[in-house]
Amino acid sequence: MKIIQVNENVSLRRDPDSGNEKIQAVVDDILATVRHDGDEALRAYTKKLDGAETDALFVTETERVEAYESLEDEAVEALQQAIANIRDFHERQRPQSWMTTKSDGTILGQQVTPLDAVGVYVPGGKAAYPSTILMDVIPAQVAHVGRIVMTSPPDETGRLHPAVVVAASELGVETILKAGGAQAIAALAYGTESVPAVDKIVGPGNDYVALAKRAVFGQVDIDMIAGPSEIVIIADDSARPDYVAADLLSQAEHEERATAIVVTPSKTLAKKVSAEVERQLEDLPRAAIARQALADYGAIYLTADLSEAVAVVNELAPEHVEVLCEQPFAYLGKIKHAGAIFLGENSAESVGDYFAGPNHVLPTNGTARFSSPLSVDDFLKKASIIHYSAEALAENHENIATLARLEGFEAHARAVDIRRKRGGPKS
Ligand SMILES: NC(=O)c1ccc[n+]([C@@H]2O[C@H](COP(=O)([O-])OP(=O)(O)OC[C@H]3O[C@@H](n4cnc5c(N)ncnc54)[C@H](O)[C@@H]3O)[C@@H](O)[C@H]2O)c1
Ligand SMILES: N[C@H](CO)Cc1c[nH]c[nH+]1
Ligand SMILES: [Zn+2]
To answer: Which residues does the annotation say bind Zn(2+) (predicted)?
Structure first.
């Protein structure tokens, strides 16, 4: 791996539009066609892009049974344990409606309501992601979303990966559409004869999915545009080079555009990590992908000290940061910008990707500066509650009318004046 003396201009931010003009044109065409031709277009794109016939657009009961038959019991049990952990974590996020009554009888509050219908996109082109189903569906269920439509691209036989079907079934997801890419996003956003439109679409995907989500935003809400995976490891001499290397490779194997970076003041550690990465690459099944990612987006940054390392991490604002230092908890609060913070040598990112409980759908591309992990909040909306008492209106009507006239809105002013002129409001 490249070992680079730190450069203050380090950044993970990539222009999301660069080189995407051609893909955007393809996406716009697919969105318009599915909007116009519905199911017929959905089937035609699935045939063209995924090579699959989908006479039945949704996963059938027989397919569910076959999926369970082809999965090992230990895989189902691991999914069940992960579900329990992720549900437990997200249950703690549920906000409550609230109301407060003031001494003059005014009642103010906030009503929290779940979304009626949500679409969950589960990527399935190059790899199957049952873990992402758990991360997307569980917070929606905890929020009590009314209707969940899941969608994922089928393989050439017209089926979804058995682990995807089992993960969804373990969660009780009833509607599983077999469609991927921009055509799936169009079906969820606009609706077709068989796919009911939703209010919000969540879930990561490739550029076709991301650009389609961005294009339908406004018609529906979306969670975020989640880009390629990113890991940044802040490490001192106490870190084990084999652990650091393993964790870098765990994200580099995702795809050629994944980012894997170490930030350390220790030259000795840097050299050992670089050698370890080469050693561990030797028998890694996805070594070609990981090598490419490390060549293009991997680095070991050398800093003057650990405080400079923290400053670099905050500048990068990565999706994940691991703290492999002697006192990991000393860095909490100092690391301000990261999607998820993993503390200590047993907290490999894989623990969070699959099992610990927190969500693995996280802000990427430097957006951790201003956004947060997917959570129960993403599946709720809030309405304000206002009940003004007679006493409060008597006390404040002149202020309200003055502010209205300041903006030139006479009708606003009269709407409070009228309640005073008629002898004052009833209590
Ligand atoms: N951030 C996260 O939490 C997270 C989790 C899982 C996956 N991911 C990311 O999701 C992405 C998954 O990508 P993927 O490709 O494997 O699956 P995908 O399901 O996102 O995309 C597959 C679909 O892309 C469309 N497509 C492919 N080539 C096309 C073309 N030439 N024209 C039109 N449409 C085309 C097809 O419709 C196909 O069904 C990866 O980048 C992965 O890293 C992120
Ligand atoms: N690391 C990914 C998010 O960046 C999530 C994931 C899914 N499966 C394995 N990992
Ligand atoms: Zn991962």
So the answer is: 251, 254, 353, 412
Tell me the CATH number at 215.
3.40.50.1980
List the shell of residues around ion ligand 3, using CB closer than 5 Å: 353
Q: Is 69 a catalytic residue?
A: no
Give residue 292's domain range: 228-370
Q: Alpha-carbon distance 294 to 135, whole Å?
A: 27
Q: For the packed helices 130-142 and 73-91, what is the interaxial angle rounded to 10 degrees?
A: 40
Total domains, the chain:
3
Nearest 10 degrees: Cα torsion 277, 129, 161, 194:
-150
CB distance 129 to ligand 2 below 6 Å: yes
Residues 328 and 186 in one domain: no
Same domain, 112 and 211: yes
Q: How far apart are CA 298 and CA 308, in angstroms?
A: 19
- Token pair 């990981």: residue: 290
- Which residue's CA lies nearest to atom 19 of ligand 1? 123
**What sign does the dihedral 369-375-380-386 (CA atoms) show?**
negative
pLDDT digits (tens, 9 = 90+) for 310-363: 999 999 999 999 999 999 999 999 999 999 999 999 999 999 999 999 999 999
Read off φ and ψ for residue 306, nearest 5 degrees: -70, -30
Residue 412: inside a domain, yes or no? Answer: yes
Atom of ligand 2 nearest to the CA of 319: 4
The interface pTM score, or ipTM, of the predicted complex is 0.97
pTM over 0.80: yes
Q: Are 151 and 181 in contact (CB under 8 A)?
A: no
Is the CB–ligand 1 distance for residue 203 below 6 Å?
no
299: which strand partners? 261
Q: Residues with Cβ < 8 Å from 363, sequence gap 6 or more?
A: 224, 226, 317, 319, 339, 371, 372, 373
Is 37 among the domain residues? Answer: yes
Please tell me whether residues 117 and 41 are part of one structural domain.
Answer: yes
Which of 199, 222, 245 is the last residue in one of the domains?
222
